[in-house]
User: Fold these one by one.
Assistant:
Number 1:
Amino acid sequence: MNSTPHRDDNSFISARPGHSLLPAPFSVHYHLCMRLLLVEDEHDIQSFLRQALAEAGYIVDVAPDGKTAESLAATHPYDILIVDLGLPDMDGINLILRLRQTGVGAPVLILSARRSVDDRVRGLEQGGDDYLTKPFALAELLARLRNLLKRNSPQAGEPTRLHVQDLELDLLRREATRSGQPLQLTAQEFVLLEYLCRNAGRVVTRSMILQKVWGMRIQPDTNVVDVHIYRLRGKVDGSGRQPLIRTLRGVGYVLKDR
Ligand code: CA
């Protein structure tokens, strides 16, 4: 891959069992302060990456299985995730799907021993943002993480706050307020509200919401969107506020911009 030459490109190592690694030099990116969730059950890779990523400036949490990953992701706002596909309790692809369904929008780098084109395509289609096969070079892993973070961070000049009437969304802190009053939203409700805000004044259909917020391409026989809109409306429009979320029966929803 074409990445900008970087000091740590010299540290070209593969993570192999039995090697406790980390030769110098590593360039340290303490300015990043990015929180990373590493989902990996192989102990050697786990401890190698935990140390290497910490030295590269990431705040690293490690989950050895899918269940732990789900509970960590539900309580911590991660900036990026590394997910192994062969986990003891579930397939990594299923984990990614489940995380996406609960509103985890952070980029996911799949790290897997499965090398076939089919596996890679499937991983990328099911919510992974990049795919790296084992054994891997640390320099390449770090470069891919940087690229994913760059791709997902607001571009220079791009707003980090959205305003619609008296509603304000802080996209960096993932916080929403109405007339300055904080709204207690779940991660998924925030993603849904962000999508409505970005399309304020326009009608969004259920299938658009399913695709953008839940990553589902087909409309399943489910009222998941209606249920979430109902809860979101309770929080955004409750307490006698001027209603912002309007339902167009049989069509979808619109966030009123005036
Ligand atoms: Ca594994």
Number 2:
Amino acid sequence: MVFESLSEKLQSTLKNLTGKGRLTEKDIDAAMREVKLALLEADVNFKVVKQFVKTVKERSIGSDVMESLTPGQQVIKIVNEELTSMMGTGESQLELKSRPGIIMMCGLQGAGKTTTSAKLAKHLKKKGKKPLLVACDVYRPAAIKQLQVVGSQVEVEVFTLGDKVNPVDIAKAGVEYAKKNGLDTVLLDTAGRLHIDEALMEELQKIVQEVSPEEILLVLDAMTGQDAVNVADTFDDQLKLTGVVLTKLDGDTRGGAALSIRAVTEVPIKFIAMGEKLDQIEVFHPDRMASRILGMGDVLSLIEKAQANVDEQKAKELEAKLRNQTFTLDDFLDQMEQMRNLGPLDELLGMIPGMDSKALKGVSLDNKEFAHVEAIIKSMTRQEREKPEIIDMSRRKRIAKGSGTSPVEVNRLLKQFKDIKKMMKQFGAMGKQMKKRKMRL
Ligand code: GDP
């Protein structure tokens, strides 16, 4: 999970507070020392940490204790609020009013610009936009080809004039092409360098002058630590960024530097990317990230993600089935199909509060396995699909034969089905628990 160790440390420190009926200034001091260490260890910018701890302390000591909260809960509430405001002020939308709306993607080489451009194009397409990807990186060998590959994966057209034309002219021509072809959003994939250099900045500034992009997004690799903050600062200085996209938040490095970007540069984080797959991008919500770090899970993100991919009517039916305990293997198959579109299961589970994703590694839905699962379920009788408990050894053998698999595989599937059923029940229960917890906090 993102910021796993920061999250663990903060949670255990804050848990100590909730157990206490009264909090003294000393208790708060001690807790804030731990919080400070946890943030510093996670590589959050020193100045940002100092300010953060100071504010939380002042607010904790000076606040009127609300009747509905224990003092410990009150502190958690304040930490949550301050963590949120450190990362931003609400969701920052893309501001695209012109037609076509132009987004310039920039960043250092390897930050994930090309991948992220394709991800954003896909994201925009899902929202009903008609995007165009424009290949302005004429320096890195194979950059154009790479954009064409990811473009075709997300089924978005890629505009290129090859690598012999000036990037500024390519950008202009790309915008003209979009206008002529009724495409409403242009994503300019610009060149990166290993380090910031004058020539790169000048080229980007020229593109800005010529096509006036409404959005200038800096793609930043969250794994580069404090360097990410410096890069953001310089790019913002030279280009007046409108937003940041943080990539590689799936990495298990400390990542805290990324959390300081907003506080240091005041440029909002607009999206976060957590994987190489082209749907692994999310709109950034500071409040949800804060709750995720503090272990409140990210039920909202989960729901949003599910809504984008899952048929709502079907979801309602599924909910009823879970409630009535009539979830069958047929539904399971149906679910697997839908969940495949959601991304890796353990990533989803990480968003659920209190969910131990490690315990559920075994139920992850591997694409390759899907064909087998389908064959196995299709080889069952209707009765077996509805009541898998009746599947004994001889039925298992018959099903394995019918599906061209082995009894062991059939067994595994039945176990997965049981686990998923259990997990879904748990999820339902947790949803209720969360609501209660939220109200208390
Ligand atoms: P560019 O040089 O900035 O255009 O970077 P690329 O788009 O070529 O990405 C560099 C590498 O980072 C590629 O191997 C990508 O697959 C990978 N990458 C991009 N975004 C992510 C992410 O969110 N998570 C992970 N793990 N890898 C990513």
